[in-house]
Amino acid sequence: MSHDDETISNTSHNPHINDLIEQHLHDPKRRALLRSGTGLAALSFIGSSSALLAACGGDDDSAPAPAPAPAPAPPPPPAAPAGPARPSALSFGAVAKSTADVVTVAGGYTASVLYRLGDPIASGIPAYMNNGADAAPSFAQRAGDHHDAIEYYGLSATGTYSATSSDRGLLVMNHEAITPAFLHPAGQTIVAGARTVADEVLREFYVHGVSVIEVQRAAGAWSYKQDSAFNRRVHTLTVIEIAGPARGAPQMITKFSPTGTQTRGTINNCAHGYTPWYTYLACEENWAGYFRRVTATDNPNRTTKELTSFARYGVAGNGRELWATFTPDTADNLYGRWNTQVVGATAADDYRNVSNTYGWNVEIDPFTGAAAPKKRTAMGRIAHEGAWPAKAVVGKPVVFYMGCDSRNEYIYKYVSTAVWDAADATRGLTAGDKYLDAGKLYAAKFNADGTGNWLELTFGVGNVTAANVAYPFTDQIDVALNTRLAADAQGATKMDRPEWGAVDPLNGDVYMTLTNNTAALRPLAATDAANPRHYNDLRTNGTAQRGNPNGHIIRWRESSPEVLTFTWDIFLFGARSTIADPNINVSALTADNDFSSPDGLWFSRATNLCWVQTDDGAYTDVTNCMLLAALPGGVGDGGPRTITNTDALGATKQVQTFVGAAQGTKLRRFLVGPKDCEVTGITETPDGRTLFVNIQHPGEDTPATAIGDPTMFTSHWPEGGTARPRSATIVITKNDAGVIGI
Ligand code: FEO
Ligand code: CA
Ligand code: CA
User: Fold this and answer.
1) Full-prediction pTM beyond 0.85?
2) N or C terminus of the chain with fewer C-beta within 10 Å?
3) Long-range contacts made by residues 20-28, C-beta under 8 angstroms, separation at least 24?
4) Any idea which ligand is nearest the CA of 406?
């Protein structure tokens, strides 16, 4: 999604571990104890002496910096699987940072455009005019907008999954959101706060969601097959089954589905997951903002628990695209289905519950176009960025790692009840029923000593009970629907906006980008070991950007994916290389690899290279967003580090953290995107010789009022000239047809 386009609703008082320390530091007697070195016992409730050390350099405490505690020993990695080893060096030259309106890729490589907003995916659908006049109903069979996550599935001659097909496959990708200025003749028509042009709204309904397209390589060139029977769009009008514990629950009843077993549509599908049975998970991220709920009139009709839930997820307002404001509504509530308010006699008479049917991972089988997708409610309801599987092992549970993308939200893990049977690899959504409808959810707690714990989110465990004051839970359905509140109750660690995760195929280490945070939401006092920075990233025009505006990438190692403890460190910190201060440019980035706001993250299975994509608003004075490649070591390859933070008032605080070995030349910029884009989504053919990468929302900072004046567009990519910009999938190949990156 757009770098600054997120809801912020973790106003929970779930104390951060450093909040607890701070409270005690503000007690003068305890401060004296700390200075005299006898305070350890007084703070023993915190759980570890290194947590205490992290606090000793409090914001206004003049005590000297503590000696860093040694890093905990991570569990040994599993034996390296059969397959390619990680290369020792990257083979391409770094691409320079750029603000040009082009895709720049490393020398020796070629990037070409494959699939753009509006491109037709059925025979008889005309080419996209890209002037706002394309017929609204045709968008049901055109590429959506804001291409995001993407996954390649090899296609056999008989139309089944092939692990080796590198010339023919299905690309499945998300269309997260829209740039309305470029979709319609002159942007959105809004009169007195209401949408008034039905075609515009219908177009927007269709351009969200998911594409499935068949792609093929012939004579060395890739194209998508416009008339393939596999081509499919899933969008906000697609009927989707509710699966898992919330299926049929009273909270899921709507006028559309009085049995609470279905809903219409998926929305704001950001990153994704893929399963060991070759299906796709489209993860619903900023769904909350699409619904209309006018609190002044709706709140009196709601229970206290409902109000707590709405507040925690940010369901309030008129809806970001104002869809529910269009009148008159249709008989099947095309517009009113976005109105999550009490307006009828019962839940089966209105859409008071419709927002409960969003916020899930949506499983799609790309090989069976007729099958309804399924919302997998056992995996919890959050602002799902994506769901990344650990390597499936026969006889062990299937495990997915997940992030909730909002500032100060949590990292989660799902562990299936069923254990993996390799025979299920061909069973599609039936396998999904087995592994994704029953399992346990956990939220991550990162301890200051470099260890961590997975906190179980099961009704009856810990604070997830009817006695929980902030939100008294009723049952596991309540936990599935209010996963954030369950994680609050168990004391999960608030993170600097979790974006993508990825699992190292060689050693199982799990990486997750933490894209950025602000000074308001990660003030100096709230920095902690896992979110350790608070500083000023000064723009070239002198504008201060405080907090953790450049983000970092955390990683952890478990002895096996289903266990409940881990050891962590921080792989990389974003920063501008022109900043020499090691408290800011912690990873010693250079001009060849400096970046800001990591978002997409992915390991190639062909080469084991780690790829990092950015969705940035902080470093855009110097460069557009980018794609970098890395050759990481693993958790524990660096050591402890004490970072000295400074806030706007000059107060300082020292935080001990654990930092991975500096990457040096093992991290290098591979591609820079066009203006105002986000580089997101990356996948490959099994032979590693083709990369597919998504370029999202080029030109998104164009003022909506400038649509009539192409000279005001900030981007014209990919068509150039005076064209409106279009999100698109690009194909990257090596000019010598070799494997990419090595
Ligand atoms: Fe849609 Fe979390 O970026
Ligand atoms: Ca993002
Ligand atoms: Ca993202």
Assistant:
1) yes
2) C
3) 20/45, 20/46, 21/46, 21/51, 21/52, 21/54, 21/55, 21/58, 22/55, 22/58, 22/525, 25/55, 25/58, 25/61
4) 1
